Amino acid sequence: MISTPTPRRIHRRHPQPTRRGLAALGLVLALALLVGTFAIATGGRATQSRRHDLHHQSIALLESAIQTAQSLGEELESDLRLPVDEGAAVWIDVKVITSDDQPNQIEATLVRNNRPGMSIRRPQRGNS
Fold first, then answer.
1. 18: pLDDT confidence band, cut at 50, 70 and 90?
2. What is the tens place of the pLDDT at every residue in 44-63?
3. Separation in Å, CA 70 to CA 7, 13, 103, 127
4. Distance between CA atoms of residues 77 and 127, nearest Å
5. If DSSP codes are grouped into helix, strand and coil, which group holds residue 114?
6. Phi-psi region for residue 112, left (φ > 0), alpha (ψ -120 to 50) or beta?
7. Cα–Cα distance between 30 and 79 in angstroms, integer?
8. Average model confidence (pLDDT) across the chain
9. Alpha-carbon torsion (58, 60, 66, 71), positive or negative
10. Fewer CB within a 10 Å sphere, N or C end of the chain?
């Protein structure tokens, strides 16, 4: 009689490596989502801070233009154009606003590329 080897049982393992791979992939995706959210929030805050700083710089520039116009006193009869950056076509238009029922005011408007932007008004000093 010829002896034949007994067939071995093939034990198939559960697909644990695949499960571990899926778990690792899920963890990586969750971490990427967390990092992306943090980057977007930080970038948004930086942009908002930059806008805030530019807004305050513009107000300070307009205030300075009004102080310059007030130093002229009564000589400021017509509109005044103060250059900020000639290469970038940025200037400030300063004019006196007269009214019968209110004291005179000085208005300064920031102009970029012939388009008026931010504007502020302050009472004219020495005028009642």
1. low
2. 999 999 999 999 999 999 99
3. 106, 88, 14, 10
4. 13
5. coil
6. beta
7. 60
8. 84
9. negative
10. N
φ, ψ (nearest 5 deg) of residue 4:
-110, 140
**30 against 17, higher pLDDT:** 30
**What letters, b where the CB count within 10 A reaches 16 and e where it falls short, cover 71-106?**
eeeeebeeebeeeeeeeeeebbbbbbeeeeeeeebb
Check residue 128 and give its pLDDT: 46
Exposure class string for 35-59: b at 16+ Cβ within 10 A, else e: eeeeeeeeeeeeeeeeeeeeeeebe
Asked if residues 108 and 58 have their Cβ atoms less than 8 Å apart, the reply is: no
Q: For residue 106, what are the β-bridge partners?
A: 96, 122
Q: What are phi and psi of 99, to 5 degrees?
A: -150, 145
Contact by Cβ (8 Å): 92, 110: yes
More confident residue, 78 or 27: 27
Q: Please write the tens of the pLDDT for every residue from 20-51.
A: 788 888 999 999 999 999 999 999 999 999 99
